[in-house]
Prior knowledge:
29 helices, mainly alpha, 5-stranded antiparallel sheet, 4 domains, single chain
Amino acid sequence: MPFSLNEFEQHLPEALLKKGLAYFRNGHVLSVEETSPGVYEAIVEGTSPYSVSLFLKNGTLTRATCDCPYRDGFYCKHMAAVIFYLQQDVLGLEPKKSRGRKLKDEAAGIEPSKRKKPGRRPAEKKKDMVSQIREKATREELMEFVMDLAHSDKIFLAKLKYTFSHYDEDQSVKRYASDVTALLKSVIGRGPNRWRRGSDAGRAAASFLSNAYLQVRKGHVLTAAMMTLGALEALTKAIQYIDDSNADIGGNIDTALNLLYSIAENGPSEEVAAFIKANCLSAYKKKIFGGWDWHLAMISIAATFCYDVEDANELIRLIEEEGYQEYEESTVAAIVFQLYWQSGQFEQARTYRHSNIRFKPMRESAIRDAVQQGDINEAIKLAKEGYVQDMKLKPGLAKLWQTILIQLYEQKGDLQSVQILARQRILEELVFSEHEFDVLKKSTDHKAWPAMLKDILDAAVRRDPYDMYGKRKEILVKEGMWEELLIVVTLRNLIHYTNDYDKYLGDRFPETWSSYVRNTILEEAVHAKNRTDYQRISGSLVMLYKAGRNQLVISIVEALRIRYKHRPAMLETLSKL
């Protein structure tokens, strides 16, 4: 789950933070390098050297990977150690043995500290060991080291091969499929329980595909296409004998397909385009992925490169001969329409679209065309028909047509229709529809708005008396109705409310809110049974303390210590606040 790097201590388990901090302090973070904006690659010394990658965007950690087997949920101690490394200036930390150069905290959106200790000359900046080796070691020494390591370490050998795979004169889809199969089998091992090692297999596949992405960034697009197609073949076979209940294999198949679509849609060279088209068509004809969703994806990717009438019609004939399942009809319609349109057969495309207007892609295309031609009434008619068609069996699609209708009426300036539809949508939804709410308020006269708002809130109470879905609370926050919000929030003692609504209610109703927070946390403690429950209470108290509720937090902690003095696990958790 993404989180701000400045708040990482609130999101990682306490045990993981302890281990990560120990690793950082003891100098186990050997090297850290920003390989591209927001992407940090690190080596952390553990049982063996592990590679860690952190992906940051505007100070938020969006993804992290490590090739170790010791994962605690989504994160491991090696990732935590690298996070401490990046945050060392902010936290005032220093490793006992400095083994790497300090990085600026730009990834976390923080200016590095510029303070100097008085009376001391600034220390001379030392180069890290990797930089010294790169400067001083001879080419022969480095080559000998690489070859020795490649012979003794299979994981290093695989990384070496895939990093420089564009130099392989014998590379092919078949070769990469064989490599991925061998990689997966080496990871899952032998024995009756090997099918359960899906997470290990998933990490190995993800590592292989990250090298394919790297080849794209380096401009070796043909190699990346071969690697991706090979991975698809191997993963499709692997899904038959590896437990994929957590989508460890299926998720990597999606990654491979996304990469292939990305290459196809970004204007590759004629050589790459011809290669992808030929291989996708071959896979489709041979039914290599028959029975799986990505079987149809092969013809969809191949269609990206069909601009010739003869080629387009050949693909359409192939699809019709192959046949397809009922659930695939909408996807097939989109592919056929695309083939007609991009090959310049516009009349055939429109005729085909009209006869298949029941499918979402066709109706959306027809609505877009009508809007572009300035025929808003035709677009409205199409959206209305879609709503009526899908209202009973496909309510999700019906909501889409309703949203499009609101937008079309806005373009037309028909505020009455906008108001009717937006109000209908808000009343129908259990959750808060912010866009429709804003549209409704904008289209309603300000004198009539209080009555309209009361109508919406009353309907929400009737449908969801305890506001389980949070619709009423979000409306009250948006409208600044704080007294009403206090009443709704205090109907239920939920610990996450103490943090979610503190910023709205804490300063406005200090006594009532403090009493609610105290009672809620003490009630939560009554039902707490394990360390996870205690940590949830502790986390809530930490957030309240950071929000400035210091005295309230101290009083609650004291009450918990007195009340639960015979619960050592709770006392230990509280002692760390």
